[in-house]
Design brief:
9 helices; 25 strands; alpha+beta; single chain; 46% strand
Length: 494
């Protein structure tokens, strides 16, 4: 192009000199005007050059587009009916109302409907249409529909080299559907870029979008060298949520990785290994707010078997006792009542937090043979005593989600217990062991005491009726229930 402009400038100069020699008048053109004329002429020549693709045969354009998109960009496009050529913002073919089909499948299946697809061209070889190269692809206003099986296909493609020319997707939607075609979730895609970086030798994928009206950023970088890492970054700025997962495939398909999960003031680092269907993992020096957390475990898939040990330091035990709506919904769904699911989890807490009743806690959560229990769970107050759970079970009955358990309360110092609860001295009695069997309704937050024994003696029916009638919603903070304790001590005949 520079050579064309140079030759045209020489032609203009010679012509001007000829005109000047043939006239008797002093015909002078300034240097600025020469360059201006040259610039304008060069611009027109450049525009004419950019318009050359308009002359290409439409049948050739259609066949060439289909072939190159499939070979260079791995995009299987339906036969484009509406193709036009534009030079702004850069020379490109514009295709409207076209479909993208899944590649490498026996039956042709549409995975996207595209309103606007732009194929940007390299400007080097417009005179020879056979040498015209595609520079990048921009997909606008598309709706992608992906079934569960399509996700497996995407996972297989993830390990392959992406095109070294950019594919951009703007202002589109991704509809995730189950195998029955029902929409499970929708991701709004604001901007996506994917390509193979020749300098860093890695696949690059970047997506800015929205899920449940919450903006997020997903960034994936994968080396084509299997001995190098793959990194996935996911962040949701309004929630101050960030997930960074970095892993590498070792020998014998052993995967070694590290995951960092952070939200607000919490940060959890996990190192893990994956061998076939077994995942082992551990975390050291992670934090949940001001509490320190360490854990380790093993997870086996098919059948599902989880062993997990968690240790917390300076964590508020009262937070752990709050109802978790996600866990309740999971139990209500019935998914955990499965003979193929086995879970053995222990949570050990050592707390120095002020105004907490318990300083040491061990919670055991088990799922064995389709049954859920908290057996051998223990709460300890260093000065007062301990509370232990046994023979526990979570089950459904009459549309109620119930937790039945035996509770053993071993009192180390009844005087310190009374002092904590601010009980009148006239009501204080020397108690050692209290045994309770109760039902707790997760849905209504009600407690029913089935049996109470104090120091190996059954309490009276009046005592049992009093404790059941007093309050349907007993608070976990004993200080707020000292009135109940006082009434019970009055009714106790021991």
């Amino acid at each position: 192009m520079k050579q064309i402009i140079k030759n045209f400038n020489n032609l203009v100069t010679k012509t001007i000199f000829k005109v000047q020699n043939k006239t008797n008048n002093n015909f002078n053109i300034s240097g600025f005007n020469k360059y201006l004329i040259t610039l304008i002429a060069g611009l027109f020549i450049y525009l004419f050059y950019l318009l050359i693709p308009v002359l290409y045969d439409k049948t050739w354009i259609q066949g060439n587009i289909e072939s190159k998109l499939l070979n260079e960009f791995k995009i299987n496009l339906s036969k484009p009916a509406n193709i036009s050529y534009r030079i702004l913002p850069a020379p490109h073919f514009l295709i409207t109302d076209v479909k993208i089909f899944a590649s490498n499948v026996k039956k042709k299946k549409s995975i996207a409907e595209v309103k606007n697809l732009q194929i940007f061209l390299s400007q080097e070889n417009f005179f020879n249409k056979e040498k015209v190269n595609f520079k990048k692809i921009v997909i606008n206003n598309a709706n992608f529909s992906l079934l569960r099986n399509d996700l497996k296909l995407l996972n297989e493609l993830r390990g392959k080299k992406l095109p070294n020319k950019k594919i951009k997707i703007n202002n589109s939607n991704i509809f995730f559907k189950d195998n029955f075609g029902e929409i499970v979730s929708i991701i709004k895609v604001n901007k996506t870029v994917l390509f193979f970086d020749d300098k860093k030798l890695l696949n690059f994928f970047n997506l800015k979008g929205q899920l449940f009206n919450m903006p997020f950023l997903l960034d994936i970088q994968k080396h084509i060298d299997p001995n190098k890492y793959e990194q996935i970054n996911f962040s949701v700025k309004p929630l101050e949520l960030s997930i960074i997962n970095k892993f590498i495939m070792g020998k014998n398909e052993l995967i070694n990785g590290e995951n960092t999960f952070s939200i607000l003031n919490s940060r959890v680092n996990t190192k893990y290994n994956i061998k076939e269907k077994l995942i082992t993992f551990r975390s050291d020096n992670s934090r949940l707010d001001s509490a320190q957390i360490n854990y380790n475990g093993k997870l086996s898939i098919n059948p599902f078997d989880l062993d997990l040990d968690i240790k917390l330091k300076n964590y508020k035990v009262s937070k752990l006792l709050n109802k978790n709506p996600i866990m309740i919904e999971l139990i209500r769904s019935g998914l955990l009542y499965n003979d193929n699911i086995s879970i053995n989890t222990s949570i050990v807490i050592n707390s120095d937090v002020k105004n907490e009743i318990f300083q040491k806690v061990k919670i055991n959560f088990q799922i064995i043979n389709g049954k859920i229990n908290f057996n051998k769970t223990m709460f300890v107050n260093d000065d007062i005593g301990s509370l232990n759970l046994s023979n526990s079970d979570i089950f459904f009955k009459d549309n109620k989600l119930l937790f039945n358990t035996d509770i053993s309360i071993d009192i180390k110092s009844s005087e310190k217990l009374y002092s904590l609860l601010n009980i009148k001295k006239s009501l204080r009695k020397n108690l050692k062991i209290i045994l309770v069997n109760l039902d707790y309704n997760f849905l209504s937050n009600q407690i029913k005491f089935n049996n109470v024994r104090i120091d190996k003696k059954d309490v009276s029916s009046k005592f049992l009726k009093l404790i059941n009638d007093f309050d349907e919603n007993i608070d976990s903070n004993f200080n707020k229930n000292r009135r109940l304790i006082s009434e019970l001590l009055k009714a106790y005949e021991g």
